[in-house]
Amino acid sequence: QVRLMESGGGSVQAGGSLRLSCTASGYTDSNYCMGWARQAPGNEREVVARLERDGSISYADSVTGRFTISIDNAKNTLYLQMDNLKPEDAATYYCAAGPPSRPCPLEPSKYNSWGSGTQVAVSS
Length: 124
Known about the structure:
Blueprint: E1 3-7, E2 10-13, E3 18-25, E4 33-39, E5 46-51, E6 57-59, E7 67-72, E8 77-82, E9 91-98, E10 113-114, E11 118-123
Parallel strand pairs: 2-11
Antiparallel strand pairs: 1-3, 3-8, 4-5, 4-9, 5-6, 7-8, 9-10, 9-11
């Protein structure tokens, strides 16, 4: 079982930036769909960025051009750089890992490991 821990959330003004980090332990090659999801109060959890084993990356339309997912395998750390943040980006952000799949799934239920989340607040 992969254990994931997020950090880097906070409060910013609209147009600002944050970088989220997710440190993985117990990581094995068998878990290599990794992603970032978010959930705002009253909303369903949505996957906003996905990273596949071959390095392919996908983003939700709502964050394309503003968010960047990356990984440092040497540090077992997944990142989400969030630029030009909007109030609608405010949510709890979660790191997720799951079995290899091509493409990595959009459905949160397909990921089998989750961090506890980090909150992002964006003021207008």
